[in-house]
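Batch manifest line 319
LIGAND: iron/sulfur cluster
JOB: complex structure
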Amino acid sequence: MPETAAAPASKKFSLQQYKTEVHVDWCPGCGDFGILSSIQQALFQLQLPPYKVAMISGIGCSGKTPHYIDTYGLHTLHGRALPVATGAKLANNQLTVVAVGGDGDGYGIGAGYFLNSGRRNIDMTYIVFNNGVYGLTKGQASPTLAKGLKTKSMPDPSIQEGINPIAVALGAGYTWIGRGYALDVKSLVSLIVQAINHKGTSFLDVFQTCPVYNDLRTKEWYAGEDIGRTRIRRLDADPTWNPVVADASSIEEIVEKKTRALHASYESGDNLAVGVFYSIDLPTYDDQLATKVPALKEHPLVDLPLYQRDVQPLFDELA
Ligand code: SF4
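JOB STATUS: finished
ARTIFACT:
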């Protein structure tokens, strides 16, 4: 990929180099635009070489994201962004891997992968475009739509509870957990930068507006036009908020930080908390693997010739 002269003097890569020429065909006003722009700006801020980034998506409107970001990318199967991202990172631990998908894709179809990616702690990032509906298939209720809500494409209000993704992520063991809002791009860029910088699996749920099918969670609703104040509550506006576990060996501190994050995640209705909920430094899966296969510290798996591994015992076992 050329390193063009368009980049600012202090930067090697320009913002434009993270964009493709593919026509973005999301509906006008879709919150996906804010998330796409935020990811591109975050990659630009971090100055990650585009050829060292892999964007992996599942199926849904948000599944098109890798088409619009000029890095490596794969548009995979429904709910399968995380296992493919896991494989990409294990094959090449020098890549920055970002998985993206919708709430139906990640919390419904791919729910098993969502849980198990949390406990594995591979060094990668997962961003979920959470709009409460399956937009690509005409707006059926997704796992995050709260009980009693009825969007315009539903015949009746939902009779199931919605899941709380932050609470699930806390239980699953994600080592960095955040939530953003698609239309607050400045804050979202900062959250994505922090998520990518985190060593371990970072999970970022993003409130996203779907103006076509979700006529309840509109930008006017988030802005709180009916109640005279925004419904978005920034966690970092609270001077006592500190989501970072200082002593990862302290069960007491972990429980205290998780409990506080859990309380914040259950704020609902007119107070929707956004920001960093939880962060802890724990050994990553990649690093633990490299202690078993020291060559991985120097070279990614994809560059290791097979002869460096003694595979004969495996063949013997299978004979
Ligand atoms: Fe966006 Fe909704 Fe249109 Fe999908 S259906 S592109 S989520 S506005």
